[in-house]
Amino acid sequence: MQTAERSAPAQRRRRQWGTERSQAPLPAVHDRPSNAKLIWGRVAIWVTVAVWALYVLTVVVTLLMAGAFDTTWRVIEAVSYLLVVTLLTFSALMYLVARQGAYQRFRAHRRAPRAELDRHFSSPHETLTVLVPSYAEEPAVVRKTLWSAALQEYPSLRVVLLIDDNPKPSDPADLERLNETRAIADDIMEDLHVPAMRFSYALIACEHESLVAGGLTEQSMVHLLEEYEWAVQWLRDKAAAQPREDHVDDFFVEEVLLGLADDLETTAFAVAAAIAASEMIPAQRIHELFRRLVWIFSAEVASFERKRYVSLSHEANKAMNLNSYIGLLGGRFTQQETPDGMLLRPATSSELIDLDVPYSEFVLTLDADSVLLRDYCLRLVHFLEQPQNARVAVTQTPYSSFREAPTRIERLAGATTDVQHILHQGMTAHNATFWVGANAVIRMEALDDILEIEMVDGFEVRRYVQDRTVIEDTESSVDLGEHGWILINYPERLSYSATPPDFGSLVVQRRRWANGGLLILPKLWKQMRERRQMLKPLGMGEVMLRVNYMASIAWASFGLLFLLAYPYDSRLVSPLVLVGALPYFLAMASDLHYTGYKRTDVLRIYGFNLIMLPVNLAGVFKSVQQGLTGMKIPFARTPKVKERTATQLLYVVAPYVIVGFSVFVAWRSFQEGAWGTLAFSTINAILASWAILAYIGIRNSIVDVWIGLTDWMWVDANRTVADSSDTDDAALDWRTALHEGHAAPGTKTTKALQKTGSRA
After folding, report:
1. Contacts of residue 156, Cβ cutoff 8 Å, sequence gap at least 6
2. Which residue has the higher pLDDT, 521 or 10?
3. Which is nearest to 184 in space by CA: 297, 293, 304, 298?
4. pTM of model > 0.70
5. N or C: which end of the chain has fewer CB atoms below 10 A?
């Protein structure tokens, strides 16, 4: 039994006021939208366009052409305000277009029947490899992810945990966590051994009876029922032994373990009913049901650490962690010890191998804090293997958030995630899908098309997924499009992922999301030119949605900053601006209700976006910095700890500055009689103040400010200096001399080699 299962339950995070006490996950299949929802969606789109056009005519004709702005600066002011309103309206319009496409897809979707899946996978299938990149993750988080992958039903499944931690940490706490993480794969394999062997023998017995007796009898159905009842009980015992320390544990137990148990129990009830009615289930179906148990409990689970090998890239990002292992697929390798470290070398046919990596036609990438529902693999691979989907490179279910979040900010961030799920589904309707890195099934043929190979320090480095930016999934989506591949979001909720529980960890995540989109835009322009030359231009909807996805954070952040900071002429602040924004806010309120939240959360999201404005701007500036310098931005991992993550000083102070400045603008607008600006500033001040109180907290703000002001005074007492004794040097010197040989002519001999030579 696993270590986590023996430990005593930990105390749950204290639940804050203003969170849902009990909220079951939404159904995997989306509710079919009504005709009214689709009609009102179209109305919202046309109202937004019409009101924007009316506002532009008002400003251009009534004010500019009539000479109301009589100086060059006033004209620039009017044009800049018009540009900001246009960009913000465009983003709102893309939201409405995407959600309309999503609801149309939900209405048309028909789920593949269970029997169809069983028939489809009756033919031989290659191994499906699930890759779970992990860096400094809590073992309990990783364990749930691996179990959700290992219990997927698939003919041949291989789950590999890609551990990216330093393989030899100096901190004892880090070493303990690393060793516990390393043990997870073996723990899962040990737990699966008994059911895997039992169901394999049961399948063999079924096949033997069919061959010897020339068919199956009612006794085979009795045996089938017994096996399913045993599997149901095994899963329920497993669920009862799981610790429940938070709402994610609850989800894992209820939806993964007990959900699978309920699924199998339904089959058991059906078999029992057939036996009671003295009816015979077709022999082929009995065989499929036995085989299903084998598939569920026979996954191979392993781990791999690329940083143990000097021949693999050690670049600190998730993309290269994935690339390092994907580049090994289909290979057989031996390990070779060198003075620089261990390297992997392709094995010859006569050599004993140390590492055998089976090839996979499909690869499933899964973040270490995500959880899959039970038939994710079957349904998505079945979809990819349909003849009409031969050019689909990636399919995924954009992740949803775990419900019953204990903190207000996790609940609200989860609400934005669930609304974003709808938008991603709608982008597929216009062929504008982006790979969302938390989970995806990817066709290896497509990855081979976008492969880039370079030599680094004498070793071949393969890049399937670009690591130029920290949003590697977005850039890879454009790369796949350049090679004629398409991406599709499967229209169901089959994956869930963790949402940061506090403001500090959310800052890290959202700053990373805001970084990189601008750098990828030139690739999209290039793709557009090439497609025009091929007389196969990209659709207007695809182009607009992709541009908005990659650049809207930049223009929306700067646009909102200008609206907050610059005292625009009150004549520009027309009621038409508010009317044009209403369809967007009403549609979002409807989407929040559709996903199980409150319609009034739309106001909370607006306030939340205000206090996140400095974070988004920081991400945009990082993109500009990278574009100017060409230097990669380090991948910032989102902390997943039970304690609160402290926030950097800037991101704590900036929301208070926004509130203070909004109050100042409101006061000045009142004095000048600029009632439109007064209303806008007052709303911003109120909603941003509420967001600070609800999502940061006064006490946490004081603590984080104090830490930010005093952190420079402290040093790490545990920092150690590497030992460089002569004994260690000698051990290194002779290995280096034997491996490298004498220095090339004209090369200065190192001090270490001189020592070796003098001792010889």
Report:
1. 125, 126, 127, 128
2. 521
3. 304
4. yes
5. C
